[in-house]
Amino acid sequence: MIHKFEVGQAVVPACPLRPSRNTYLVVKQLPLTSYEPQYWIQGTRSGVDYWK
Question: How would you class 29 by CB atoms within 10 Å of its CB: exposed for 0-12, middle for 13-18, buried for 19 or more?
Answer without folding.
Answer: middle
